Amino acid sequence: MNLLIRNVRLIDGCGGEPVPSVNVVVENGVISWIGEGSVVPSAHPHYEDINGEDLTLMPGIFDCHEHFAGDGGQNGVLVMNEDTPETLLVKAAGNAQRALMSGQTSARDVGSPYGISVTLARQVATGSIPGPRITAAGQWIQAPTTWPYSMVHTIESAEQMRRVVTDQIAQGVGLIKVGATGVREDGSDYATLGPEIAGLVVELAHGAGLKVAAHCTGFTGAAEAVEAGIDSIEHATQIDERTAKLMAEKGTVAVPTMSTWDYRLNAAVRWGLSKEELDISEARRDASKASFKRMLAAGVKIAAGTDAGGSPVRHGTVVRELEVMIDAGLGVMQAIESATRTAAEITGVLDRAGTVEVGKLADLILIDGDPLSDIAALRNVWAVFQGGRRIR
Ligand SMILES: [Zn+2]
Q1: Which residue has the higher pLDDT, 320 or 41?
Q2: Model confidence over 112-121: pLDDT tens digits?
Q3: How many Å lie between the centroid of ligand 1 and the Cα of residue 159?
Q4: 149-180 pLDDT, tens per residue?
Q5: Over the stretch 198-256, which tens digit does the pLDDT of each residue have?
Q6: How far is it, in rounded angstroms, from Cα 313 to Cα 319?
Q7: What is the side-by-side order of every strand in the sheet holding 175-179?
Q8: Contact 79, 71 (CB under 8 A)
Q9: Minimal CA–CA distance to 181: which of 132, 138, 147?
Q10: Which residue among 77, 150, 276, 291 is the one 20 to 30 A from 138 at the CA level?
Q11: Residue 350, CB-side half-sphere exposure with 13 Å CA sphere
Q12: Binning pLDDT at 50, 70 and 90, where does residue 291 land?
């Protein structure tokens, strides 16, 4: 758990310019010293000593929107809905390992069938299985609507919501996930929770030191969630100017999950999608990009999340999400922050992770190349450290 990384280019995740030549010392799994240029602390004969020349050191990457129980793929969500809890837990362990090996040292799991992600998170934390540090919602909670899957717990009153949230807190969830948007048969959207229940969730979760994430694919559900003080808007495909401004004012974080439509559109030919299916995906892309631009213009905080497992997207593919967000107007350094510092903030672990600073956990990646000149370099992961332990 003790190491010295010499002469490395540092992108610390705080948004500043990269520093060309840095030496970093890790002791007992924590970053204990950072110095520039030729200053190297006196020799530590038993430390792992890494030549960082021409490599880039960064905080380990976060994915803020995953469902580890699902493998992704065209029918992944349906399969997840039919698997037994035991099968789901084993698959989730495999997906967690895949994510970790890609350079992803932290994650939010925003909804799992039977709440198995809480067990997954705990087993990773105890060291039983390898994986990113997982902050897990159990089942996601929502009012009756069109989403029938086993990962959903349906409530019909404020009293039921109070009971479910209280139970989940007692079970040790890391965040509360709610659905805030429903879609009517004519395609129009509506807010499913209502201000009373949305406010109650925020009050209960914040009272327990947890954040609330809301699935929002409609204008009205998103507006209501932001007004109620929900911490992150997931998907954020329909955000109008007024809601974007309110998000910026209140510090609400958006997790745009653009990978979902990007994956579908890229797979359209091999899946043989019909004209109608393609139209739906293209409309989602256009709405998502337009909302994203409104949020960028308003100065909304953006965190990277793929919806891996809850969509066809595979685990360990955050870099694609960054590429799509950059293509839609996000700056490259902002994209890196969206998967590091801002991600750690919305995950509630910024005091421990998300940046390369003295006192933080040594969750680090070494990249062969410069992600600022080409974000795709983030796929060239040369080393992964978690708590100072070399994983790859
Ligand atoms: Zn999802």
Answers
A1: 320
A2: 999 999 999 9
A3: 25
A4: 778 899 999 999 999 999 999 999 999 999 99
A5: 999 999 999 999 999 999 999 999 999 999 999 999 999 999 999 999 999 999 999 99
A6: 12
A7: 152-154, 140-142, 175-179, 211-216, 232-235, 253-255, 301-302
A8: yes
A9: 147
A10: 291
A11: 15
A12: very high
**17 alpha carbon – ligand 1 mean position (Å):** 33
User: Distance from the CA of 232 to the center of ligand 1, in angstroms?
Assistant: 13
Ligand 1: centre distance to CA 379 (Å):
23
CA 160–ligand 1 middle distance (angstroms):
23
Q: How far is the CA of 307 from the centre of ligand 1 (A)?
A: 5
Place of tokens 């469902």: 67
Q: Which residues neighbour ligand 1 (ion) by CB within 5 Å?
A: 307, 310
**pLDDT for residue 207:** 98
Q: Tell how far the Cα of 237 is from the centroid of ligand 1, in angstroms.
A: 13
* Alpha carbon separation from 239 to 34, 177, 289, 318, 374 (Å, rounded): 41, 19, 10, 23, 29
Enter the tokens of residue 230.
Answer: 């929900």
Q: Residue for token digits 């807190």?
A: 169
pLDDT at 149: 72
Which amino acid is it at 164? V
Residues written for the chain: 392
